[in-house]
Amino acid sequence: VINDDGGSIAIVDVGSRKKTTISPEYASAFGLAWSPDGSEVWYTAAEVGGNRLLYAANPSGRTRPLARVAGNLTLYDVARDGRVLVSHDNVQIGIIARAPGASADVDLSWLDWSLLSDISPDGRSVLFSETGEGGGRGYSVYVRGMDGSAAVRLGEGTSQRFSPDGKSVLALVGPPSGPDLVIYPIGAGESKKIAAAGLVIRGAAWLPDGKRILAGGREPGHKARGWIFAVDGGKPRPITPEPYRGITLSHDGTRLAAVGPDDDFYVVPVDGSGQPVKIPGISNLQDAVVGWTAEGKIWVRRGSGAHLPLRIQVVDPATGQIESETQLMPADATGVNALQGVRMGPNGSYAYSYYRNLGTLYQVEGVR
After folding, report:
1. What is the pTM of this model?
2. Distance separating alpha carbons of residues 343 and 361, to the nearest angstrom
């Protein structure tokens, strides 16, 4: 999953190219090196959340913990004499938002890993996932008002989008290899599961009628494309060729922006009435489409999330002409090295997640 460091440790034989997985699947796995004698792989990982500890795994798959501390460890290297280069990190993903008509930003961070997904149709609430220690296994879906009121947990999963009437939200629930779509009500009511029908879904959003859902996913043995699900059930219907991914739906639900087979951005009609049309002037190698304006223009993030302050431009998708630009940056930028999950709402509202890492680098001796 893009931007998610969950996974397993594997060894690849250079000659045969055979891959052998030697560890369980972790919620976070980042940083690895061979042990001093080459008999094990040492790595930092976390079974739940993001507070990684130092593990070892041998080629037969036997794992053992090597070092555990309060907080998060990242392994950078292991010397031949056994010294270990590791950082002790205080990592947080938080949320910055601005309500319609407001003159200042507010920090809406909730627990330790608040990853923004959407702004409500009225611009007054945010939808986000807690994917760290506080979110638990399987993560958690939350809604919070921009007035700073307490966040409300709706259920397990990874949040996606608000419904057009703002009364419910979409989430992906289940393992990344095959999550289901789930509709959670905001307030009273029961959740509703929409089976993935064998598709591996990576993102989803409501169409304006509230009766259909646009999802990006792929069939086994195929590449990604856009699909339409009916909320009431039935077989999903493909609406884009393969491979088109990273779909972003327009306000009126007639068009979507997606990355095509050549890694350029295209506008694709949802009803299948025409061919994808390339958007000039933007590149998937650096830029990203983060939304549509009510007037049919697109919001484009220029550069990666690590290019700070982050530049968000309004672009005409037909001509590539830039019409305006907004720069985003937290007031307290200490340790902030990336912004992600940018959403632009009505009447000047916006929200985004920031990634803050404050760490200390250590040389550790005596690891066995």
Report:
1. 0.83
2. 34
